[in-house]
Design goal:
By secondary structure, the chain is mainly alpha-helical. The chain contains five helices and no strands.
Amino acid sequence: MNDKSLSQALLDLDARALAGATDPREPLLKIMAGDRRRVFWWSAAAIVFWMLALLMVGWMLVAMGLLMPQEAMLRDPAQLAHAGLSPEQRADALLQVHIMSRMILVGVTFSVALLGIAAGATVFLVRASRHATLRQINASLLEISAQLQALRAGAASR
């Protein structure tokens, strides 16, 4: 059963109970189980993506913290003289720093993408949780309505 047919089954639950169906609560239980699974998986996805995004952002911050002093050292003539680098070694080191800065830029872009995916997963989690809550409220109201009808029928038979 897909989500629409389960929702329709929830709406028809009272009619099935009146028609004498074997277990009129079966569609309701399927809906609740599906909602629990959906909320669980969206929760897991949101947690995983937020953790990956935080790790990636932290990794990029550390990489930039290691790259910046190296780049500053390669641009300072006093430190170059102290390190004893030849012009070829300095050019090679500057090229490596340039390549690392571009790799960090790609990593930052990937971090932003992960943050966007994590935010999207959170939005879908909130949406799934809201739908599950509304369905639980509808089911509870339906059960209360059935109990009130049973009380009225019992009071009318007296």
